[in-house]
């Protein structure tokens, strides 16, 4: 199994056809087909199914594709680091960050990091577990700062706790239910919740069920923090989120926390990366800055 075999497999996945993949790699179609056949012989399994519908990956092909993307990503990062050591162009670091970390510490982290790595290019994406985990597995992220429960994470993910996230119920200023103290007063409330795995919304529903509290009757499912907060500010939808975020002067503008008790237990904000895969020399100081400021 060689580098060009893996790159051929990944390119076919990206292009969704052998002809387009060959064109993207500046190869003849027969050369690319040969590389794929050699790869199948090397692993001892059929990786692709070819039909009039196009290309489909077998279970073995999908498994190898995930690992191939990660392996190629690691090799590319190694080449970047070597180029940097030899005085070449700066490296690229790609991270995922939750809105809480972005609002509370990201500006300070970036300010300090630019002093340490002035030539590094930074890519930022949303820190939602549904996208973070696949991106970590396939090497598209160096690390993530996200809310998670270590017990629910796959073994391949290393989770370093950094901060406790206190839950809060929030709604717009002047909301007719803003003075509520008990869950029974929210029985007819309208909600907007992120119900993706590992989210505070998902955690809330499980906690309400466990405590015999009637769940929300009217819920808009939303995975975008921006859309959720805008709906909270501009409508009577309420939401659960980090108290630290709702109380932030900028992010929480127009939002008030409800004094309803009890609330679900705190969750944990931490740093996620692939277990056994060291961070690059450019990503390591960035991760250290997040750890320093979030722990503080």
> How does the major sheet shape up?
5 strands, mixed
User: According to CATH, what is the class of the largest domain?
Assistant: Alpha Beta
CATH topology of the largest domain: D-Maltodextrin-Binding Protein, domain 2
Supply the number of helical segments.
11
Looking at the overall shape, the CATH architecture of the largest domain is 3-Layer(aba) Sandwich
Mean pLDDT: 88
Commentary on this structure:
- With 296 residues, the protein is an alpha/beta fold.
- The protein folds into 3 domains: 3-78, Winged helix-like DNA-binding domain superfamily/Winged helix DNA-binding domain (Arc Repressor Mutant, subunit A); 90-164 and 269-295, D-Maltodextrin-Binding Protein, domain 2; 167-264, Periplasmic binding protein-like II (D-Maltodextrin-Binding Protein, domain 2), CATH 3.40.190.10.
- The chain is built from 11 helices and 12 strands.
- It has a 5-stranded mixed beta sheet, with helices on both faces. A 5-stranded mixed beta sheet has the order 9-8-10-7-11.
- Helix 8 (200-210) links the parallel strand 8 (190-193) and strand 9.
- Helix 1 crosses helix 3 (29-43).
- The longest helix has 27 residues, at 59-85.
- The model has no long low-confidence stretch (mean pLDDT 88).
SSE layout and pairing:
Elements: H1 3-15, H2 18-24, H3 29-43, E1 48-51, E2 54-57, H4 59-85, E3 92-97, H5 99-104, H6 106-116, E4 121-126, H7 129-137, E5 143-148, E6 157-165, E7 167-172, E8 190-193, H8 200-210, E9 218-221, H9 225-234, E10 237-242, H10 243-246, E11 255-258, E12 267-274, H11 283-295
Parallel strand pairs: 3-4, 3-5, 8-9, 8-10
Antiparallel strand pairs: 1-2, 5-12, 6-12, 7-10, 7-11
Helix pairs in contact: 1-2, 1-3, 1-4, 2-3, 6-11
């Amino acid at each position: 199994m060689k580098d060009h075999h893996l790159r051929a497999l990944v390119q076919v996945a990206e292009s969704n056809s052998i002809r387009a993949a060959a064109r993207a790699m500046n190869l003849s179609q027969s050369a690319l087909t040969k590389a794929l056949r050699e790869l199948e012989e090397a692993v001892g399994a059929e990786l692709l199914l070819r039909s009039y519908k196009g290309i489909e990956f077998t279970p073995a092909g999908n498994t190898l594709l995930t690992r191939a993307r990660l392996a190629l990503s690691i090799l590319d990062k190694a080449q970047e680091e070597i180029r940097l050591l030899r005085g070449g162009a700066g490296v690229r670091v790609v991270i995922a960050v939750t809105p809480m970390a972005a609002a509370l510490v990201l500006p300070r982290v970036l300010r300090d990091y630019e002093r340490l790595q002035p030539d590094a290019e930074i890519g930022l994406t949303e820190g939602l577990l549904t996208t973070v985990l696949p991106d970590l597995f396939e090497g598209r992220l160096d690390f993530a700062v996200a809310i998670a429960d270590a017990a629910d994470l796959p073994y391949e993910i290393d989770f370093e706790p950094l901060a406790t996230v206190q839950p809060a119920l929030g709604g717009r200023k002047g909301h007719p239910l803003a003075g509520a103290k008990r869950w029974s007063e929210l029985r007819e409330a309208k909600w907007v919740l992120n119900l993706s795995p590992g989210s505070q919304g998902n955690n809330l529903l499980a906690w309400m069920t466990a405590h015999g509290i009637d769940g929300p009757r009217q819920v808009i499912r939303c995975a975008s923090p921006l859309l959720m907060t805008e709906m909270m500010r501009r409508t009577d939808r309420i939401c659960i989120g980090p108290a630290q975020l709702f109380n932030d002067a900028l992010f929480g503008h127009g939002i008030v926390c409800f004094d309803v008790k009890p609330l679900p237990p705190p969750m944990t904000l931490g740093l996620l990366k692939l277990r056994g895969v060291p961070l690059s020399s450019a990503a390591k100081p960035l991760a250290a800055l997040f750890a320093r400021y979030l722990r503080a």
